[in-house]
Amino acid sequence: MIIIGEKINASLPGIKEIIESRDTPALLELATSQAAAGAGFIDVNVGTGVGSSQDEIFSMEWAVQVIQGRVDTPLCIDSADPVVLEAGLKARNGKPSLINSTKAEEKNLKQVVSLASDYQSHIVGLAMDETGIPATVEERVRACEKIVSACDKHGVPLENVYFDPLVLPVSTDIKQGLVTLNTLGVIKEKFPAAKTAMGLSNVSYGLPGRSMLNTAFLHMAVYAGLDAAIMDPLDKRLVSAITVAEALTGKDRYCRRYTKSLRGKH
Amino acid sequence: MNQDELTSKIAFNVIQGRLEAEDEGYHEGLEGQPGVTELVQQALEEGLNPKTIVLEGLTAAMDVVGEKFERGEYLIPDMLASAECVGAAMDILTPYLLEAGVESKGKFVIATVAGDLHDIGKNIVSIMLKGGGYEVIDLGADVSTEQIVEAIEEHQAPFLGLSALLTTTMRAMGDVVDKLKERGLRDRVKVLIGGAPTSIEFANQIEADAHCRDAFDAMDVLKAMTA
Prior knowledge:
The structure holds two protein chains of two kinds. Chain A is of the alpha/beta class. Chain A has one domain (2-233): Alpha-Beta Barrel (TIM Barrel). Helix content of chain A is 48%, strand content 17%. In chain A, strands 1-2-3-4-5-6-7-8 form an eight-stranded parallel beta barrel, surrounded by six helices. In chain A, helix 7 runs parallel beside helix 8 and helix 9 packs antiparallel against helix 10 (256-262). By secondary structure, chain B is α/β, with parallel strands linked by helices. Chain B has two domains: 3-99, Methionine synthase domain (Methyltransferase, Methionine Synthase (B12-binding Domains), Chain A, domain 1); 107-226, 3-Layer(aba) Sandwich (Rossmann fold). Chain B has nine helices and five strands. In chain B, strands 2-1-3-4-5 form a five-stranded parallel sheet, with helices on both faces. In chain B, helix 8 links the parallel strand 4 and strand 5. In chain B, helix 1 (3-16) packs antiparallel against helix 2, helix 1 runs antiparallel to helix 4 (76-99) and helix 6 (145-155) crosses helix 7 (171-182). The longest helix of chain B has 24 residues, at 76-99. The two termini of chain B are 35 Å apart. The chains are: A alpha/beta, B alpha/beta.
């Protein structure tokens, strides 16, 4: 499982302040701790929701330069604004990046998928279109198909694409856990070369005992074919949920990672 | 890299259970370094004696793995990973050993007895025996008494290993010994038995030659038997 470290996100408490005050040590601490915990990518989202697009561009350039000065882990350049994405990719200077994200909406596809092509970057494709997040598996897969044809057109190989099946809370629609899991399965079947990525915690929104739900959902997602989890790599419970699920689904040769994780503890 | 460095590197990777460069080992951070198959190929290309590779690279390493397993430091999958490395290395080395005229320590017929499909333990013993220089004739699992006895006769094998994991099927081991006597083959073959429900007492009861606790014990038993 590839872990996409989610902690540098302006919508999380305390992060907006770090970005606005250009708090380099605090930003570096967030990056180095996630890298040390085994993150395969570090997500960088500096959209504070205030100020102009230009402000977000400056923030992105600052964050990327600060982090890559210290940490080799590939970065996940995260913004809803293609101009900000490009600023982040440019600042990467050819180092490996993952664009987060495009959706199956014509203008968005054109701008963002061509960035993936221009900067030889990997890209997250959200299983949604201009009308929002579809409620059914079929519609989400249709959105992915649109992304696939845009990638074909721009010469982005499917190996570089991470489809996000999207996760909605089961507290508001009890079918949503299953819709996400089944979408994962269909994506893996239809586009075996592509990877899958998603955040988990939304599934438990509005319910008590969230960590229990998130852990079980992660187990199921590994079985369904999840390749990358957008999560806190320092969350030991979630990390061990990955280890357990991979041992049980044939993704851990000779139970190496599982037994290592428990060595000296039993 | 000189000869000693290369064989000790092979041994190290057998202990780590790393077949290929991409494999994780028992310890952290070894991914990307050559594994046992790559190193054995390299050793052959550099003209190392295949027998030296077996003795210093494989056999010595499995002794260490055996100790670690006995101590409880290594778990079953750790041992299986190492055994797989030895098996793969022997597959590469066997033609070279034959070409070099290295004589085997003798034919060893091995089988899981009739009615029993459990073969994990038997397979480990089989790999260890190959690594130990025996010519192994592995008949598989759920092998009839008749087939086992015929194999002994056909191959003139001086060693027979019988495995069973069930209290109901272990009795078939006694049938094999009786059948060997009936055919007048009993004196020509040493019968070693193993498997979870078996014991020294049971071995004595059916008049087998030895009971082996596990694959490593089997190697020790053989060493003592052939000394």
